[in-house]
Amino acid sequence: MITRSLESAAKGMLALMDMNDNTANNIANVNTIGYKRGALRFKDIMESAVHSQQGSILRNNSSRYLGDLSVGSQSLQYTHDFSQGALTKTGNKFDVAIEGDGFFKIRDIDGKESYTRNGSFYVNSDDYLITKQGEYVLDVNNRRIRMIPEDFDPEIMRDRAEIIIGEQGNIEMNSYDQKIPMQTIGIFDFSDKEDLFEIGDAKFIPRDVENNPELKAEKFSVQQGMLELSNSNVIREMINTINTTRNYESLTKVVSSNNELLQRAVSVGRLRSS
């Protein structure tokens, strides 16, 4: 029983270390635009079944199943909280935030695609809408978005045209009292968000593309001149840190107490053998 208690406490301490690392990551990204708070799921480690003995040796030696005996817990799955983050106004006409479901779809120079809620966009020298890292923002048809039509003079349009992004992601250019419809920013979603894997910088990709393909988002509204803040809360994460530390200290005491008991048992065994 002593060694089993030590094993259970040790596994619990390892799980708490994982939890503390996750909390630290959430705190580090509290100011990251579009960041979604990480969370850990744990599972009990079942070692053996427990039965109650019924009757006696002379009569009936049957037993009744009571359940499984746990020897601790371990990290099972890393998930994300995709709840809406607060929106903040920036005034930048190329900043866009999603209110509701969905992700922006972006493509890097190597052709790799990912999904993000970070709508801090810019226009490069070729007039394409890009992220801070230089990835292209894609439209509803998976094409790069060009902010100036090819048959217009870029030098004139950059200075005089007004860019308007509608709630459905549709882009319009207002120039000389003329509204010119352009591309529509693609807003995509997934039926199983737990399948999404974070690759850094608040960007996600699906683990299983075949069984969890991208879908066109339905319940959303695109807000121009705004950004979605991280949904990680410093106060909540600090409370989690305190609780994790207290639990870790409690398990440390369990290990220390059982270590003393084990040393006494070994000493008693030596005395009896001598």
What is the domain tally?
A: 2
Order of helix and strand elements from N to C terminus: HEEEEEEEEEHEEEEEEEEEH
Q: What is the mean predicted local confidence, pLDDT?
A: 84
Task: Name the assembly state.
Answer: single chain
Number of strands: 18
Rounded to the nearest angstrom, the distance between the terminal CA atoms is: 25 Å
Rg over alpha carbons = 28 Å
Outline the low-pLDDT stretches: 55-59
Give the biggest beta sheet.
7 strands, antiparallel
DSSP helical segment count: 3
Broad structural category: alpha+beta
Q: Strand fraction band?
A: 35-45%
Spatial shape: elongated
Helix share of residues?
A: 25-40%
Helices and strands, with pairings:
Elements: H1 2-28, E1 38-53, E2 63-80, E3 87-89, E4 96-100, E5 103-107, E6 113-116, E7 122-123, E8 129-130, E9 136-137, H2 154-160, E10 162-165, E11 170-175, E12 178-184, E13 187-189, E14 196-200, E15 203-206, E16 215-216, E17 220-224, E18 226-228, H3 234-273
In short:
The protein is an alpha+beta fold. 27% of the residues lie in helices and 35% in strands.
Provide structural commentary.
By secondary structure, the chain is of the alpha+beta class. The protein folds into 2 domains: 2-81 and 233-273, no CATH class; 87-228, no CATH class. It contains 3 helices and 18 strands. A hairpin with a 2-residue loop joins strand 14 (196-200) and strand 15 (203-206). It has helices spanning 2-28, 154-160, 234-273; strands at residues 38-53, 63-80, 87-89, 96-100, 103-107, 113-116, 122-123, 129-130, 136-137, 162-165, 170-175, 178-184, 187-189, 196-200, 203-206, 215-216, 220-224, 226-228. Strands 5, 6, 9, 13, 14, 15 and 16 form a 7-stranded antiparallel β-sheet that branches. Strands 10-11-12 form a 3-stranded antiparallel β-sheet, covered by helices on one side. It has a two-stranded antiparallel ribbon with strand order 1-2. 27% of the residues lie in helices and 35% in strands. Helix 1 (2-28) packs antiparallel against helix 3 (234-273).
